[in-house]
Structures are given as structure tokens and as C-alpha cells.
Write a structure and sequence with these properties.
This protein is α+β, with helices and mostly antiparallel strands. It has one domain: Clavaminate synthase-like (Double-stranded beta-helix), CATH 3.60.130.10. It contains eight helices and 17 strands. The protein is globular. The termini are far apart. 2-oxoglutaric acid binds next to strand 6, strand 14 and strand 15.
Length: 346
């Protein structure tokens, strides 16, 4: 400290520029979690009781590991994506449901416990009536009719870099949408080639030519509503948001929102910038071929995710993920709450 210093500043927190992290449980920790989760009843029956119980179970994780997950949820400078490996799995896994789920044959709830337990360390699981009928545990499974779609039912087509957004009468689809997604793998695809990609907006911004970043930071884009909304509610018609930027907020901590089901640029410059954006996402992305016992924590504001093409056989052994949508708090989305279920939005 020099003589001219007139006030002290608290020691700076270590600022991380790391955008991907991997955490692996030891076998002992995995088995301890597994023993407790095997006794869990179906967590959907009383979700608030179950999430309380899961918080007790997950609080027995080693402190350093628990802190990494908590830090993922609470800090602005932590990675946008984290892979957790060597999680416990169900002793018996029934066929992958051919209708997209949920499975009616699943008898234990280890996978659901892992998914909701991790989710509870980040915030509150939420459902949306137009996405998986408002369920809190989403099954992400290839469905024959949706193979080519830009939705989570797809397989044959590369699912472009996107955020999970929500149709909303306020005209913004990136406000009441989940802050986080947790994706947990129950079964990999047959060939083990399905990759989940994540591109962090910090890495994207650094890699973009400045003038393209400027364009993407301008309100020149209208997001199409999610495929499930367009298909089930809007009779196949596009339903566009008000004009928004693709990238917004603090330059060191940007937020990004891209719709999977199409972005409509208002200018030709905007169109070119969108193409560059998808290319840059591919360049900077981290990718993981999820395997059973692995889960990805995804920050849905710090970055965008994608999935590579893979081949589905619809034979009961196809890729099966479970997913939650997580809000840090349910309070500021209360304008969308439905009667009779305080976690489910219209
Ligand atoms: O299948 C995946 O790996 C990701 C799919 C996806 O985008 C999602 O579930 O939101
Ligand atoms: Fe997604």
C-alpha cells in the first residue's frame, strides 16, 4: 500500500474468464448420493417436499464441490456451462419412451433426484403449459415426427445455437424464460455421436468483428416463438417478438438470446450478422457427448446451446435426456402464474 492511498478496498475476488468447467464426483460421493436417492418417492407427487429433501441430500456433497455448483448459479463471472460426471444412475432403466415421454415404466427416481437436486442448488424448477404440458421434469427424446425440426424432438438436423425462450404476450420471449437449464443423460444415442454444444456470449463477443457485434447489439431482430408453441397453439403460424438485440447488457458480462425456431432480421446487415453469429458460435463452443451419469448445468442467459445431428432408431434404446427449466426466483415471473400450480406458467 502506498502513502497516497486514502481508503482501503476489499481484496478483489478472483475473476474467472473460464467459460467451461468439469466436476467429477468420486465413487464414494456418487454411491452416498445414490443410496439416498434410491429411496426417493416420485418427486413430482409433492415437489416442494421433494426439493426440500433433495436439498438435504445434496448438502452432503463435499463443500468445495457444492460451492462450485452454488457459484455457478449465483455469480456473474462464473462459467456459463458446467459438466458434472459420475453421478448416480437408476439400477434399471426402462425403454426410452417412443412418444417423447414421460415413461410410465420407470420405477425408481434416481435420475429425477439428480436432476431436481442439482436444479435446486441453482434456483426453482418451473414448468410452462406449452412446453411438455407444464411438467417440471422434461424428457428430451427424439420423436419420429419431429426428426427434422428445430426442437428438442429433433435428431437428423443440427439444432442451431439457441436459448430456451418462451412465447409471452408482453412481446419479449427472453424475460420470463428459464435462467438455467439442467440436462441430465439417462441414455446416450446409439452411436454416441450426439454432441451438446455451448457457446458463451463472452467468447462470442470477443471473437466477433466489432461492427458485427454492434449490429447484434442493436434491436434489429424479431424472435419466432418456440416450435412447441407455434405447433400446438398458433396453428403453425409464426408468432414474432418485438424487435430485440441478440446480445445485450454489460460488455464484460453480456446476455444473449437466440430463438431456435427462427430469427427475423429487420435489415440485410442484420441477416449477415446472424449468419456470422452462428458460425462464431461453432468456433468458440465447448461440446460434450453426454453419457449416462453426466449432467450439464447450462446458464440460459450467459450463452447459447446447440445439438449435433444423430440417428434415432425409435427402438426403445434411443437417446434420453431429462431436463429442467430453472428460475433463480419465481417472484418476478408471477405475472405468468397459472391457477392451481404456482410453479407452472401459461
Ligand atoms: O439435446 C440436447 O443436447 C439439447 C437439446 C436442447 O436444446 C434442449 O433440451 O433445450
Ligand atoms: Fe434448447
Amino acid at each position: 500500500m502506498t502513502a497516497t492511498t486514502v481508503h482501503t478496498v476489499p481484496a478483489a475476488e478472483p475473476v474467472t474468464t473460464e467459460t467451461f468447467r468439469e466436476i467429477a464426483l468420486s465413487d464414494d460421493v456418487r454411491d452416498l448420493l445414490g443410496d439416498q436417492l434410491r429411496r426417493l418417492p416420485d418427486p413430482n407427487i409433492d415437489i416442494d417436499h421433494s426439493t426440500a429433501r433433495l436439498l438435504q441430500i445434496f448438502s452432503t456433497l463435499p463443500t468445495a464441490l457444492l460451492q462450485q455448483v452454488l457459484d455457478f448459479g449465483r455469480h456473474i463471472d462464473t462459467p456459463g456451462v458446467t459438466l458434472i460426471s459420475n453421478l448416480p444412475v437408476d439400477a434399471e432403466l426402462p425403454d426410452t419412451p417412443s412418444d417423447g415421454g414421460p415413461s410410465r415404466e420407470k420405477k425408481s427416481y434416481v435420475a429425477e433426484g439428480v436432476l431436481l437436486g442439482l436444479s435446486g442448488l441453482l434456483g426453482e424448477p418451473m414448468g410452462v403449459l406449452t412446453e411438455k404440458a407444464g411438467q417440471l421434469v422434461h424428457d428430451v427424446i427424439p420423436v419420429a415426427g419431429g426428426a427434422m425440426t428445430q426442437t428438442n424432438q429433433g435428431s437428423e438436423a443440427f439444432l442451431n445455437f439457441h436459448s430456451d425462450i418462451m412465447h409471452d404476450v408482453i412481446g419479449r420471449y427472453d424475460v420470463a424464460n428459464p435462467d438455467f437449464l439442467v440436462l441430465s443423460c439417462l441414455r446416450a444415442d446409439h452411436e454416441g455421436v450426439a454432441g451438446t454444444f455451448y457457446a458463451d456470449a463472452r467468447d462470442i463477443s470477443a471473437a466477433l468483428p466489432p461492427e458485427v457485434l454492434d449490429t447484434l447489439r442493436s434491436p434489429l431482430f424479431r424472435l419466432n416463438a418456440p416450435g412447441s408453441y407455434v405447433r400446438d397453439v398458433a396453428g403453425g403460424q409464426e408468432v414474432l417478438s418485438e424487435p430485440v438485440p441478440m446480445i445485450s447488457g454489460h460488455q464484460d458480462f453480456p446476455e444473449i438470446a437466440i430463438s431456435a425456431n427462427g430469427v427475423h432480421p429487420l435489415t440485410s446487415g442484420g441477416r449477415e450478422a446472424l449468419e456470422t453469429l452462428q458460425q462464431v458460435c461453432r468456433q468458440v463452443a465447448h461440446s460434450v457427448n453426454l453419457a449416462p451419469g453426466q449432467a450439464l448445468l447450462i446458464n440460459n442467459r450467459k450463452g447459447v446451446h446447440a445439438r449435433s445431428a444423430f440417428t434415432a432408431r425409435y427402438d426403445g434404446r434411443d437417446r434420453w435426456l431429462q431436463r429442467t427449466y430453472v428460475r433463480r426466483s419465481l417472484w418476478n415471473v408471477r405475472y405468468r402464474v397459472t391457477e392451481g400450480n404456482r410453479r407452472v406458467h401459461y
